[in-house]
Amino acid sequence: xxxxxxxxxxxxxxxxxxxxxxxxxxxxxxxxxxxxxxxxxxxxxxxxxxxxxxxxxxxxxxxxxxxxxxxxxxxxxxxxxxxxxxxxxxxxxxxxxxxxxxxxxxxxxxxxxxxxxxxxxxxxxxxxxxxxxxxxxxxxxxxxxxxxxxxxxxxxxxxxxxxxxxxxxxxxxxxxxxxxxxxxxxxxxxxx
Length: 192
Known about the structure:
Shape: elongated
CATH superfamily of one domain: Tetracycline Repressor, domain 2
Number of strands: 0
Distance between the termini: 62 Å
Strand content: under 5%
Radius of gyration: 19 Å
CATH topology of one domain: Tetracycline Repressor, domain 2
Largest sheet: none
Helix content: over 70%
CATH class of one domain: Mainly Alpha
């Protein structure tokens, strides 16, 4: 029985670490948020913090997974139009530059097949493209997008545009990522 309690406490501590890390990195930035600072924020030593994760890379990957979960809970759901949800996430990203920095850095590093987060990003991109392609097909069925538009290509282009805009925005914060994505959406839907 004690093992179950310890396991539950471990899961709760891991969730606390991820929740606090989201806030710390959003506030201070990816480069300024050290593992030591993250550990101190949850009253652990660095070794104690890494006890909950196999490596620093896994910690950062799980922070991004937690960010995705929070974004989905906040900007997703059946009552939210997918484009509104996407624009909500993108607008929110402009308020948390540290998390955008973390995402850009880890996703770039994960392009190496040997990187511990490689599989996470391959699966994440495939899932996002699939969800967006399904949305495009639904919009085609409703007559809001031409039938000759390839849903898979549109999905891949939207992901590429979002990621590219994040990089441009980090270099020039005057870029309104959400407005650019909305414009792209209008280009796809305007012929109907």
